[in-house]
Amino acid sequence: MFARITECTLKSEKINDFTRAMQDEVRPILQEQAGFVEEITLVSDVNPGQAIVLTFWNSKEDAERYERQTYPHILNSLQALLSGPPTVNKANVASSTSQKIGTRKEAVA
What we know:
Blueprint: E1 2-9, H1 15-31, E2 36-43, E3 50-57, H2 60-69, H3 71-78, E4 87-92
Antiparallel strand pairs: 1-3, 1-4, 2-3
C-alpha cells in the first residue's frame, strides 16, 4: 500500500468550496483510477486554510500513474481555491487500523 500526502494552503474564503470540490468533483475521479483505495481530506481547525489530502493506492506504480496522468488536471481545477502550489510527499503505509488500508508485506517484521 502506498500513500500520497498533499498539503495545501487554501484561500480563506474558499475552504467550504474546497471541501465541496473534493467530495463532489475530485473523489469521483479518484474512484475511477486503477489502484485507488481511499481518500481522506483534513482541514485544520488550528491553522485556517491548511488542508491535507491523503490518498491511498494499491502500489507505488498506481500512485505514479495517477500523478502523471490525472493529478495535473485535478490541480488545475482546484487552482482558484489555493493560495499557492501544494506540496506532495509520498510514503509506504507501514501500519493502519483501517480494513481498506493495508500494509506492505515487506514492512511487517
